[in-house]
Every structure is written in C-alpha cells, then in structure tokens.
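Posting this for the archive.
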Amino acid sequence: MTTRTRDIVLTALAPAMWGTTYLVTSEFLPPDRPLLTSLLRALPAGLLLILISRRLPRGEWWWKAAVIGTLNIAVFFAMLFLAAYRLPGGVAAVAGAVGPLATAGATILILNQKVRLRTWLLGIAGIAGVAMVVLTAEARLDLIGAVAGIGGAVSMSAAVVLTKRWGLPPQAGPAALAGWQLTAGGLLLAPVAFAVEGGLPEFTAVNVAGYVYLGLVNTALGYWLWFRGIGRLSVVPLSFLGLFSPLTAAFLGWLVLGETFTVWQTAGFAVALGATFVSQLHARPKAVPPLAAAENRELVRV
C-alpha cells in the first residue's frame, strides 16, 4: 500500500465513524437535545486532544482556531444534530452529501483556484448515489431540518478550505489543531445550549454510553484522522471521502435496525463509491511541510 493510499484509507475512516452519528442519536441519546449533544460531543473530545498533544495556540492561531472551530464544530454540530432530530436519517444524509459541491465552491471563493468540470459532475453523481441509497417513498421533508443539513455541510466545507489556506501551525500537528477547534466550538456552544434547552436531563446508562462513544471514537479519533488528512490530501478529493458518512449510516440501518436494502440502493452505493474513487485519481496533494514533524512529535508523546 502506497503512502497516499494509506492516507486516503485513514482519512476515510473519519466520515465512516461520523456515519454512526445518526444511529447513536436515535437509539442511545435523550430526545430533542441537539445543542446539548453537540456540546457533549465537542468539548470533552477537544480537551482530551489538547492534553494528548500538550499544545496551545500561539499568536494568530488563537483567532484562527476560533474561526474554524465556530464553522467546523459549533455551527456544523448544531446543524447536524438539528437535521438528525428533525429529519429521517436518509433525508439528512442527502442534505449532508452536498459537501463536495460546497467545497468546490469554497475552493473558488477562498483559494481562488479553478475547479474542473469533472469535479462538479462527480459531486452531482455522489449526491445522486447517496439519494438512491437512503431516500425512500416514506421520507418526509422538514424545511428547517433540510436547511440545517445543507447549512452544516456548507459550514464544514468552508472550514476545511480555510484550514487548507492557512495550513497547519509548525508547532502543532492534527491532534492539537483538532483539539483547539473542538474546544473553541464547545465553549461557544455551552451558553447557547443551556440558554435554549435548559439544564442537564437525567441521563440513563445508555445515554452515557452513547455520549462516551461520540466523544472518544466518533469525535476525538475521527477529527484527529480528518485533520491529518487535510494536511496530506487535496481539498476537493478530500471532501468526496465525506460521502462515506451517509453510506455508513445506510449500511448500519440495514445491519443493525433491519432496514431493507434493494437492488436500487445497491446501485446507488456503486454510484457514490465510484464518484469517490474517481475523485481520488490524479489528485495533487498540497503538501504542508510542518505537518509530518509535528505529527511525529504528537505520536511520540502519546
């Protein structure tokens, strides 16, 4: 396995982990608490990653981490869970699948780079494939939930492109950067969550297990892998790996919840995976020189 293939596989694990969010939210967490769930997913994971990396922001990275944390964590998490609570998982997944197209647009606006026609076509194919997999005749559309799902995808795409534009600080690797953003996003969410949704509910053992999984595996590990990938892969092909999130959600629905899986859905899987595979061909990763050294220092500490 080549280094680039390994980077793609490791990065793809992150959205695959995030694809479990819909199942965990519906089966393990207390109902109607999207902001609290966002807070408990982000802040503990962020503090853990800061402890592991033993790095705090320096200079301009205080405000840069706050900006990216707001877009990538506070806004994205709030929109994600709002969509998850108000929409069936399939509709929410299709809304989130606009990520590659949103990233292509952000690449033009923020990086001032051209995006090839192939990317737009693959992005449309990816959305179509996900729709074939997850949409059913019974799927209902909630306008607030749909806007939240699309808004979350756009917010995350903008954060990814900004991270690529600013690069990674030479003194810190992906674990530190993920920790800064998760902590900043969590701190921003805290007063809003308690003001809007009130105090903490009574948690059951199942709720606690769901939050521990979301914090440790889904978020701390997932975002470390994701920011590692941002430093090593081109930004638009990277965004296509996000399609593994709704595909994982659909697969778990079939495997765990006993949902049906038709020939049409299988064809959709093939279309979405094909778009993701083709998007990785001939991509030119934009190297960030300080990343490897910083990442190695973090691994030594762990």
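The radius of gyration is 18 Å. Residues 3-301 form one domain.
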